[in-house]
Structures
1.
Amino acid sequence: MAPPEDLPQMTYRFLGRSGLQVSAISLGGWLTYGGYTENEKTFECMKAAFDSGVNFFDCAEVYSGGKSEVVMGQAIKKYGWKRNDLVISTKLYWGTAFGDNPVNNKGLSRKHIIEGMAASLKRLDLDYVDVIYAHRPDRQTPMEETVRAFNHLINTGQALYWGTSMWDADEIAQAWRYADKLGLIGPIVEQPQYNMLNREKVELEFAKLYREVGTGLTVFSPLAQGLLSGKYKNGIPEDSRFAQQKVEFIQGWWKRNGKEKFDEMIAQINQLEPIAADLGITQSALALAWVLKNPNVSSAIIGASSAEQIYENVKAVAAVEKLTPEILEKIDGILNNKPPAVVERY
Amino acid sequence: MAPPEDLPQMTYRFLGRSGLQVSAISLGGWLTYGGYTENEKTFECMKAAFDSGVNFFDCAEVYSGGKSEVVMGQAIKKYGWKRNDLVISTKLYWGTAFGDNPVNNKGLSRKHIIEGMAASLKRLDLDYVDVIYAHRPDRQTPMEETVRAFNHLINTGQALYWGTSMWDADEIAQAWRYADKLGLIGPIVEQPQYNMLNREKVELEFAKLYREVGTGLTVFSPLAQGLLSGKYKNGIPEDSRFAQQKVEFIQGWWKRNGKEKFDEMIAQINQLEPIAADLGITQSALALAWVLKNPNVSSAIIGASSAEQIYENVKAVAAVEKLTPEILEKIDGILNNKPPAVVERY
Amino acid sequence: MAPPEDLPQMTYRFLGRSGLQVSAISLGGWLTYGGYTENEKTFECMKAAFDSGVNFFDCAEVYSGGKSEVVMGQAIKKYGWKRNDLVISTKLYWGTAFGDNPVNNKGLSRKHIIEGMAASLKRLDLDYVDVIYAHRPDRQTPMEETVRAFNHLINTGQALYWGTSMWDADEIAQAWRYADKLGLIGPIVEQPQYNMLNREKVELEFAKLYREVGTGLTVFSPLAQGLLSGKYKNGIPEDSRFAQQKVEFIQGWWKRNGKEKFDEMIAQINQLEPIAADLGITQSALALAWVLKNPNVSSAIIGASSAEQIYENVKAVAAVEKLTPEILEKIDGILNNKPPAVVERY
Amino acid sequence: MAPPEDLPQMTYRFLGRSGLQVSAISLGGWLTYGGYTENEKTFECMKAAFDSGVNFFDCAEVYSGGKSEVVMGQAIKKYGWKRNDLVISTKLYWGTAFGDNPVNNKGLSRKHIIEGMAASLKRLDLDYVDVIYAHRPDRQTPMEETVRAFNHLINTGQALYWGTSMWDADEIAQAWRYADKLGLIGPIVEQPQYNMLNREKVELEFAKLYREVGTGLTVFSPLAQGLLSGKYKNGIPEDSRFAQQKVEFIQGWWKRNGKEKFDEMIAQINQLEPIAADLGITQSALALAWVLKNPNVSSAIIGASSAEQIYENVKAVAAVEKLTPEILEKIDGILNNKPPAVVERY
């Protein structure tokens, strides 16, 4: 399926304080590729993304027990894309997760980082990735060991840059502290969750990192597992054919916060509908554009099971400039979760 | 021979201040593998250990003139174990020891470290070891040369970590001094002898290292060459079929300390018998559990010539929690060799 | 075509504060090789240069979309020159420029430096270049990333030295600042334009760099696109068969400065004719010798489409010593563009 | 020819402040191997040396235009010696010297060090040398470039250590200054001329280096081109079949110092004859033992064209202990060239 004619021009952003450029929208393999999406569909999605100007494909050793890397690697070969036109990332921490012995096949020890990278590159059938992430912080392995091991991957040409995912701000600062002390390369990017409903980490906790070490962000769940698309405005249907795993996320939310809070949240999201309508865009596009409006976001990672979904999401790129200060203020009023500004001086 | 049903769950510990996890019980090739144990028995032992959750196998270039590395490498291939599920260590210092020209084939020069590592990996038929040890201190080679050479092995991917064996505390501190000065990786682990009869090095001399540089310990002879198993409670039988080399160790002890002292020691060990009986464990299990009770011990290295011995020893893991402060105090009273506490402040 | 009998001995100069020696005249592939010069002519030119003592051949990934590297590499193979007798340089920044996606295939990110180097070496069919240049400054990529990436090329044996082209003095100083801070290798050479008409950058702006970091210069356009050869003394002929691209340069000049200024410049250049005649050399030789008279110039890069042109230019080497202080002063009087001396103390 | 029965046990010394051990007598390829000694004789000499306990073989890229490396490499293969039992050194500076273009094939630039090392290893047919020397100081290449390039050889596994030859003390100190500043490895050894007639460099100029940086010495011409063997006690025979090149050395001496001075020197040397006779050793053995008596000398490099010569020289090892303080004082009285002691404090 060819890209629609009204597809906007993709925009590219530097990945934090680095010279690497990534498309504002990137495609991730979480849950979908190698998982509940069949391989033919995966190929179709990756092609639609590439044809839309997406150059950044995100994976992890743990996604679908390693199968996500395999199928994404196959797509690259299948379409004969040039390696230098792509930005490929994967993540180490969980091992291949399903069935493997967790001892030494998990975490950020030098052993798992080196063994995990070799295994990921073999699955991807690539010589190197552009960005290798620490998928979680490992609070039992000394930070110095982890920083050294990621630099080993860079020095041996297996990765060009490294980053973190789901780390706390002080952990990122510690990693930079060791990198600086030892003359090594620090993590250029963090991958947190970021969307209209989850703002504190990106807008408050990380605020000083952007200035001090130039952390870039590739954010996941920009649509909050679909909640912000508006498709649950009448609640979650009982017999939804919707992917079981996503429902599980929402059920987890229920368990933690209660159904009542959930319904309040849905009501709040529904108030965003008229704003999207006024701008002539879908609620998804509004949510995605809102994420991209944050200049610290280098790329918003979307998941997709069809080319249509990808084209739909890419349209959000054109909506970014529509988000005027007035509209952003109106959205803040509805969301009522804007973190306080970090006071710099007293 | 399959593991017995009552085999306890293996526990894993971090190897000092590193992210590498080793089984509390590890299997060493000293004297046995490639030596007086035939290869089929070696394979059986390694399989029994692996099936018991042992992930850490210890070797040295000098063990049986290099044959220990060969047979342990064969076992890994034979059973198709995944490399990432194993922690393999070997040690450099003595060369292959039997018949080789000692000039430059011994010690911790850059030459022997680099040439010895290549030879060990070839014998093991592996691409890398997890831990490479300096088997002894080399007081003639400058420490800086040794620290640089072990880092060379790590940088070239032939080893993931390095450690020391039979070094003095101040030598370990000197190695760290050069590592720090040059931004290199220091030794994460020391391998000393440690058991109820030999406590001073581990409990007194190394006390400050644990805090300052996070030295982990893999200890050998946890049963003091079998003395602590209680099997010599009536003395050493004249025509013992017991491995000749072990007897030689004990004879050496006699020469240094005299038969009278030896008999005193046996009497002392015999007093531990009722404590083991009260806990419902063997004397060996008591001795091994006592070693593992020390939180600075990452792993106790056992030697074994049969699967039964391995299962027997692994049972000690479950006995560790039985060693209450009261029981430990009672044992200290019998051993009468508890080193003084290191006074931290005056 | 064999070198003429009166060809002077080539001279060699150190490339800035390095131990690498380059011929005073070097041959560049810009516009010509792989471009408007046919390959047989390129081979002939390179042979004439080599036979004249030229050891330095300059290229760039962008020259003729990569074809310049291909044909220059073919010449090296064709004539069986020994690699150690050659100094080969290429430049990274623009990608292969014609038709390639500019995202990540341009600039001085770690990604493009590593991917671009591999692609250049493949086109050149060489294992390494002697000098790899940053073809332009990249003001969006952090300088530290760029300095580290060029050092990665040196550490992995793909290049022996690195340099810059068309950088400002403060950018070169910044690169050295990061190199010094991190214990890395700084850029030894800058490649600017330098000729009688363009003096400020080399004679004023860079003045302190020569002393502080020892920057060497390989200069391009020593004849100012042919203007200084005197062949346009009567203006640019309307139907010139002269290479279209060079005319475009001059037309660009017109657009920026106006035809009147251009005619003034031609009149000024014409005043150099009698000086050349007095010395018994061509106007080209005078202009080239004048560039080489500057001791900070390591090599003047010429372009040529025939062996004759090369021999003609090489003759300038013998003219350098003819440029006495008196003659240089006379030339300064005509050019009227001598930058002020950098005052060192007040 | 098998070693004589009275051949003394070879002794080994550490190469300066390093962990590398070299035989007190080493065999060099200068002038002889690949040169005026035929290859079969070279093999015989190397075997005799090896059988005598010599483990250190010294070469240089320039010796016999590279042929010395070739034939010494062939001997190693021919006799199947184990690489770890040998200490092989070669030297870079002069290129292969005979007929090669000197531009960039000479000196201590990064280019020549890297290209020269590759060429030497190819000629030697080895993966690495133990020691790579800078054969002369290069006063035109920045010292930092040279220090970095030799470390590059070590980091890439092509050499284990590096040293200098014919450098001044302050140049060695400068090399260490850059090594220290950059955290790199400094030169562990210097190769100067040292014999009874040339003492100043080793005994005076280098005196502080031994203490400060631990410089070891491998010395050449311990017999002063044969002068100290006593075989010219009646002057140089006119029609000597003695190797032409050695005569040229002596002729050079004549030119610089005059025949009269030469005859004085011969007379002085003749006074050593009775001392040797008293000790029951040859004059050569006395001269060689005298060199080895200096504890800063790690090895004395001899040249030899026959197995007999080697066995003869090796005997000097046993003579070292015969040189009592009294005898040394008597020798000093004859030589009358003992440098003043370096005054340490005032």
2.
Amino acid sequence: MTGPAAPAFSIRPEAAEAPPSGIVEVFSYARGREDLIPLYVGEGDLPTPGFLVEAAQSALAAGETFYTWQRGLPELREAIARYHARVWGAQVSPDRFTVTIGGMHATQMAMRIVAGPGDEVLIPSPAWPNFDGAVRVAGAAPVAVPLSAGPAGWRLDLGRLAAAVTPRTRAMLINSPANPTGWTATREDLAGILALARRHGLWIVADEIYARFVHDPVLVAAGRSPSFRDVMEEGDRVMFVQTFSKNWAMTGWRLGWLETPPDLGPIIENLVQYSTSGVPAFLQRAAICALDEGEELVADQIARARRGRAIVCEGLAATNVVDLPPPPAAFYAFFRVLGRPDSRRLALELVDRAGVGLAPGSAFGEGGTAHLRLCFLRDPGQLEEAVARLARVLPDLARPQAN
Amino acid sequence: MTGPAAPAFSIRPEAAEAPPSGIVEVFSYARGREDLIPLYVGEGDLPTPGFLVEAAQSALAAGETFYTWQRGLPELREAIARYHARVWGAQVSPDRFTVTIGGMHATQMAMRIVAGPGDEVLIPSPAWPNFDGAVRVAGAAPVAVPLSAGPAGWRLDLGRLAAAVTPRTRAMLINSPANPTGWTATREDLAGILALARRHGLWIVADEIYARFVHDPVLVAAGRSPSFRDVMEEGDRVMFVQTFSKNWAMTGWRLGWLETPPDLGPIIENLVQYSTSGVPAFLQRAAICALDEGEELVADQIARARRGRAIVCEGLAATNVVDLPPPPAAFYAFFRVLGRPDSRRLALELVDRAGVGLAPGSAFGEGGTAHLRLCFLRDPGQLEEAVARLARVLPDLARPQAN
């Protein structure tokens, strides 16, 4: 055997070409600036409450520091099943659940199962950039299906989704309520997507992590957004990714779960084994506590988001240079500034001129490149200050006459 | 577009074909048995000491519960660099380190970078089964290069390694000291492997996590096993995977690190982003504490392993039916029972007849299928009892006349 004369030390293209996050650029630009109000990241501003912290501390002190069940503590998987019964009225067997290192790890494993080189995955866009990244790292090709933006908000055109299916399509990654747009599928949307999946033998990977952060009165009355579990039947190939991050103020804990048809259990057990080898048991104790004793916390988080939404939507509307239909769900304002299609540059300018950190829409792919994303799961006083700062400079930065 | 008449709902072969761990079968068989002495898993029996538990508890109480740096806290990456200077006498820049969800996540990311469909990775065998799994999940093909077993222990034949290189070979995964064999590469072995890598443009992924668990007098005098960093030069393409699990009794914390050439930093940042999105900051505080204040603990762990090794090696040798050259390093006895090449069946019998849980060599691939692995980083009294139990039944179970 003789190797190449000039050794290649090759790097796999799917690793090398994973796109950097466009949010990180603004985040890095703003790092270290005093008095910046950081609204670019998708997390609240409250640390995890004491009762959850104490649950983890106790488990640590009790010596739960050994290797544990690859798919999660049986007690946690049972607590997740109880939670599903309570929130979705669904009887889901614990053997459908796998505890993961955050929702991202759940999404990554789902992608590894459904798509690889040569495959395509449909993603309504604009979308959280990590969906695109997870598909690319799996070696597959993400295919953006643009949502339509109108005065009443974002909408998915089912015909457009159907037209994007090719013989290479393997799955649809459906995030509803959506980050960053707040788009929330109706029950009819979900039934239509499911019918399309059945017709073509496509997987659905459903990210419904914002299901309880609803603000539109109809959704508030229902207590949650419509879910694929409202329309699916036994045998449908739907996976759900979930996270403890948002509902229970646990972003930094890296705890989530993946729900799959039960026959995938052994495959997922191996994927866990060969990626993270499980989730710390002492963190899982806090997760059980969140599910069983965290309802008041969830209600507080939702109320905080709803108050933030009112402050931001009313304050930005008053500038008269912002296009922002109030999002029906989730906790993001995703808005355009008149005459400014260059969101990346505008986001950098707003760091300098307003002292407010926003995520550029260019980070979220097709259909949102002219937008900015603002996270409103934050202290109301801080949001009022941020809106006041934006209101001072946006009329200057907007160019209503330009286009 | 028309899909297939009978939808396929396809599952990617690299996900579906990831092999189950052969250790788990025995573990599951023994679950719930009273009085079983569990020596099949590669971890010690002491929970994480209080000073590390308290570091995590304090960080939790201080509210370090938010998203954090994708590649790890800068303070931790600096602590890792200090640790490298102390143990290996190596000046390594912190920008070569990425904090990971255990050594497994580090190994997985390394594999994603160097190998994919159509590629081959050489692995001296017997080997920790997760190496094989990580290569397969990346879509690549593991190629076992059998170590030679002799009366003086295990040995790597460099000619055999070189002969296994093909145009598809992309990397060599070198675990020294090795799990399960204890094989420890000499400096000359490492220089030879490195020369081979340079000649063919191959990556080296080095797992030296047992570097400090050395028992052979020459290694003890050196304070650690030989390392690729003793022979490599600037520009060599070597990655190191590391873990907090073994040295600091933190198996269940899922904390490790990956060391790479610095130009891979942005690629690894993306792979972290799209797999786990970082490691909990409050756990990283304990990791800093382990590196900066944990030397006494490491010394205790090594002494415990060395005492366990003496108990197990002497006790099993006295049965006269066991072939076990004392391992120069790590904390595993990897031994054959005369006339019993069927390690899987023997491991199950030993659960029933001796009340001792051992890992079957069949789980570790070619070259070790007739062996059993016993972890001796355990309470000396418990190990004495385990050896006494084995000594009672092994002469019965062995078949010296059979082959």
